[in-house]
Amino acid sequence: MQGTVDGFSYGAVTPLVAFLMACLGGALGLRCTTRSLLVTHSRRPAWLALGSAAIGSGIWTMHFVAMMGFTIKETPIHYDKPITYASLGLAIVMVGVGIFIVGYRGATGTALFTGGTITGLGVASMHYLGMAGMHFDGRFTYNTLTVAASVVIAVVAATAALWAAGRVRGFLWSVGASLVMGLAVSGMHYTGMAALDVHLHGTSGAGTGGSPASVLAPMLIGPLAFLLLAGVVVMFDPLMVMGRPTGAAVEEKPGVPAAAVASHHDRRLPLHSGGRPIRHPKHHDSRTPQNR
């Protein structure tokens, strides 16, 4: 029996809020990744990890906010909590792999392609693992071509996001990049949802169970609190607004260690073999040995 699906039970509310969640996670992740390029190697992993968790939490929250509006008329939907939270962990880990590759290898060439592919596959895997955590009196089937299209969208969106993380400087550019990322992630989600059909096992009617919103809302509290905390960290870090320290052109080539850039700007006078600095003669002193 074919199920009757409604993906927009709350109208435009869930797609809009889901889009904003994706934008929030993307914005925080991009700014943290940019910040990581301005510090030494010892502190870089912390910022990259924070950026990974922000993007992973953002896309996961976006997915399940959107799923609040998803209902099957003939049967209630239940969510397997271990699988649902496993999809969050998978998103953070695979996004992290891509971000660390770009953070240390640069947002160009093979590193960008590899990082974007891994991150995109992580986003798509999070989506379909989250769908696998849904239990009802039936099963999902998917259109292969539409699923493939959703994966391609995820990979392209992830690659663009990682490129932006390594290249984009300035607050307004980062906002624009996060909006594009949010739109792409939302597009991937709804493309994936368009790929599914619902097949029911019985004809018993609606049954008992809470609404998707009442089931999912408690599960979203933790990731939302984390995004809020990450936002506080970003807002109170002075280097996050413009993406670079004032007065220094830092990390024009993404992935270059900040320490190397700093040492370039902090060069001292050349030294003799004995360690004494070579000082250039002052032109205002024109005395010769005969005049002394």
UniProtKB/TrEMBL annotation:
Keywords: Membrane, Transmembrane, Transmembrane helix. The keyword Manganese does not apply. Residues 253-292 are annotated as: Disordered. It holds the Pfam family MHYT. The keyword Transmembrane helix applies. Residues 10-199 form the MHYT domain. One of its GO terms (cellular component) is membrane. It comes from the Bacteria. The chain crosses the membrane at residues 12-34, 46-71, 83-104, 111-130, 142-164, 171-195, 215-236. PANTHER family: DOMAIN SIGNALLING PROTEIN, PUTATIVE (AFU_ORTHOLOGUE AFUA_5G11310)-RELATED. This is MHYT domain-containing protein.
